[in-house]
Amino acid sequence: MKKILLLAGLSFAILSGCKKGLDAELPGSLTPSTFPKTEADFAALSTSVYELFTSKWSYNDGGITGDQFFGVEFSNIFLNDYPSEQIAYFPEWGGFFDSFSKADFNFMKTVNSRRNHLEKIRFITKITRIIADINASTAVIAANKIKYEAEARAARGILMYNLLTMYGPVPYIDDPALIRTEAENNMKRPERAKYVTRVADDLRFAADNLPLDPADYGRFNKGAALTFLMRLNLHEKNWEDAEKAGRELLALGYDLVDDYASLFKVATEKNKETIWAISCDPAANGNDNLGNFNAWSFYTYPADYPGNISSPGGKRQGGWAGAGIGAFMATWSFYDSFDPIDKRRELLVPSYAAVSSSGNPTGLVRDCASGLRGAIINKYPDDDPTAFAGNDLPVCRYADVLLMLAEAINEQQGATLEAQEFVNKVRRRAGLSDLTGAEIGSGVPFKDAILRERGWELFFEGQRRVDLIRMGKFTQALTAAGKTPQPGIGLFPVPQYMLDRGMEQTLGY
Fold it and tell me: Looking at the whole model, is its pTM more than 0.85?
């Protein structure tokens, strides 16, 4: 059985109770004078920084419920893949499903605290407090102080990077002396360069001090910190620094697996390509007292889609949206953009024999000709005989690193043979030939080829919106797919209650 990283009983609820934008007040009997004190306390604190990096329906922070970055609704896939040219418009459930799938973010101006990731800026303050407590402790040996701080700074860096890609720079506290002062009410956005430096410093410290292969599978590692550092520098067009981080990753021993589909199957989810993943437990159901879960088959499979396995209760089938409809389906134009021999296209299902609610064949074949809205996304096949799947959710993969490195090199030196080889290595694994002709022209042609390759390689892994924005193609790509992005810049608005606290609105709203 695979080793699952479960959160300790201590969570960020201990460090919560804040009602203001940056507040990290400690409630109840647990105060700085009584907690943390022992080595065990700090070990628990280092585990608590994973609260936002799990896959559950939500997290609970001192009575405030919020959505996870890597959960389901309002997750990275919702935020980055749904509002893209790859995913079909889904109006049936209305609300944020309708809005995200057509790339209209205006509804987020009135979104509540649960659905507003800006609430997570308070966790930045909490992690700052944890780091200060670690360094001030006399109960923790020096080596463990560095280990605990590296995990905390990885969490803070990844959190701040995610928020940057969603809203631009957000207010934060990284000086523990400012906690519980009037500074917690200052919601003014920082200068972008200062914010980016803070994120880069945290990820650099984490990369320098985290192990390559932690004892507990699922914890942050050196490769994950470097991957997010590379993403940050790419996002900010710091091409040289992105290349440096990529070359560090090249030296760590990662490589592509031979079989693309195996990356997303339970039996082979631990491999030489996956740098960091959210480890999922087939026995989990999304509730807080259990491990991480994978619920994507309920969103991607139509209700009459036959399951891949038989369970004790009969043939498992379908999702929640309806017959012939998935809440997330690949557009036919995206499906058709693949070369027919591309092995990655095999994880998009263009037709199926429909079944009844009891799992029996109905005689109906659903496909494009019969009105099937799009290809079924089967990237996380239901391999476990349980209600929810146990497939891990990759967050950082070596294939992504190779494509990012090719992009960074192209932006500095053009389509060098080395940069071409990074892309071609990914293509050959998919059964394709190397890039040729106009695709390998330096500058824009090669950049466009990389963007296409990233779409085929990384679909439904929560990266597309960020890629399109970085490459200046967000509005163009969505318009071509029949969507009208609102606004065209692709960032999210600050809700009114945060504006009332003094935060400036996102550019473009």
Answer: yes
